[in-house]
Every structure is written in structure tokens, then in C-alpha cells.
Amino acid sequence: MMRPVAPGESIQRALDEAGPGARIVLAEGVHAENVWIRHPGVTLTGAGPGRTVLVPGEGVPSGVPSLHDAPDDVVSGVTVYGESVSDVRIQGLTVRGFTGAGVYAHSADGVTVHDVTAEDNAVWGVYLRECVNGRITDCRANGSQYGGAAFSFCPLSDHLLAGNETHGNAFGVFIDNSSGVKAVRNTCHGNAIGMMLLNQVYEGEPEGGVTDCLVAANDFYDNGLVAGVEPDGLGAAGPPISGVGLALIGTHRVSVVDNHIHDNHPGGESVMGAALVISSSSGWGGDHALDNHVLWNRVYGNTPLDYQFDADLDRQTLAANTADKGDPPDARGWRR
């Protein structure tokens, strides 16, 4: 069932009345509303980013679940929530200026966020949590305190993060205790860290781990913002990070192939000292980095180092990579 919605008309009413399988078509213009998708098979589509714009409204849908680990008054632009919710598609719009996430999906199967601009949303840009078979493709995300695009505690399944551009966030892309993610052809620049894959178990959270992911053909550059320094600032909950292109922390069986990691320079304090980092998270309830494959990557023009490995290199496969300077300087699989 197709339902057109003009600016000033209620998107939520159209969603609730149309029910499962609805196709809600947002007309060009500014829609001031917070939306909750709670039925399967729904498509929410606009006329294109910058043409259809979703901004905060005065009301919040009754019963809409709040953003995980955030105060109750924090509001996201589009929320997809519920174990029975599947095959939802959100596409062709800008989501701007919400106090939570631009798009937030929780406990759903087969959520696709495509060609969405998530701009200046306070906490997250596009945030998929505890979902399976998630897709974030051809999106742009900037100006969020934590991740521009993120998978969090998403179990091993067929996840895809492809063709996105992230900038001006603490984490351009954050793969947090999620497995099976294919992160390909993304551009991450002007963040504190371009992309981080993190295995770290938190009290009260689901089982963690990052396994069987692919990070390929991405471009990580000019990531020099400072996160984790000011109590209410960028990346406030984490340690100081700046100038990092890509980090694998406690990951297992992650393949890093044909990435371009260049011209990343810290703008302040950072617990990581290179543009490409592989390290253990065992001290934080995670694990050692094991059985990762790092192949055919170009890493250059970064300060203070191109790469830094605090991992058992006998448990990694490193081959045909190029870099100017790193720690350890004689790591096999690297050439100048």
C-alpha cells in the first residue's frame, strides 16, 4: 500500500494506518516529526537527500522506545524497533538535528538504510543495534558525538556497510561487538578515527566479539579531530583518540584488504599512536587480536606512525602492504 505524505501531514499516522508492507512516500520539503516504524515490510522513502528533510517536531510517538543508553528525553529521527520488525527500508532523505540518532534500528532483521544523509544528530548518525542482516549503503553522516555509521552488538549475519561517506564524528564508522560486517568502498575523513572495530564486553550488555569481517577498498584520510577529552565533547565516553584511520581492537578473523590509509595526523592526545592500529582488548574484557589478515594496503603520509601493532604477529597474516614507518619497524609483510 502506497501512502504519499506532504509536509505538515503526519508521517506517523500514515505508518500506523497503512500497517505491514506499507510504502510511505515523503514529498519534497521539510517534515517536522519523529517517526517510529514498528511493522514489517515498510519502506519510508523521500524525494532525495536535501530535497526531503526530516527535522525534530514538537511531539513524540506514544510508546516509542528511547535510544539505548541515553536519557529518556533524547529523541531519534527514525526509530525501527521490535523483534517482529523485518525488511524495513529507509531511503532518499536527510535526517537532521535530532538529540539522539538520525536513524536508529534495534532488534530488527533486514533493515536497509540507503542514500540517507544523517546530519548534525547529537549522538549517532545511522545506528543499528542488536540487528541481523543490516545494510547501510550510499549514506552520508556527519556531526555526531559518537559514530557516523555504527553496528553495535549485531550478531554474526550478512551485514553490509558500503559506499558511505562519514566526516566530523568521533568515529566515522564504529563496528562495536558486531560480526560478519562487510565494510567496503567507504570514505572516512575528518573524524577523530576513521573506522574502529572493537571487541569489548560491557557489564549488562549482550555477548561481545568481532569476528569474520571484511574491510576492503576504503579510503581513510585526514582524521585529526580530538575525541574523548572533554566530559561533554566528541566521543565523551571513550579514551582520547585522534589521528587514526583504522583500528582493529581484539578482533578475530578480520580481513583488511586494499585500503588507502593516508594523511592522518592527531590534533591532540591519543591512546593510539598510528594511522593503522592492531591491538588487544583483553584488559577491557575483550580478547587478543587473533588470525586477522592484512593484505595489499597502502599506508603513508601519517604521523606519528603509519602502523602500530600491539599483537602477536605470528597469529596475523601480513603481506604486500606498503608503509613508510611503523612499530615494530621490521614487521614482515610491509615494504616501503
From TrEMBL:
Q: Which residues form the Right handed beta helix domain?
A: 102-273
Organism phylogeny: Bacteria, Bacillati, Actinomycetota, Actinomycetes, Streptosporangiales
Name the UniProt record assigns to this protein = Nitrous oxidase accessory protein
Q: Which organism is it from?
A: Nonomuraea phyllanthi
Report the leader peptide range.
none
The protein's matches in SUPFAM superfamilies, at most eight in alphabetical order, are given as: Pectin lyase-like
InterPro entries (UniProt xref): Beta_helix, PbH1, Pectin_lyas_fold, Pectin_lyase_fold/virulence
Top-level taxon: Bacteria
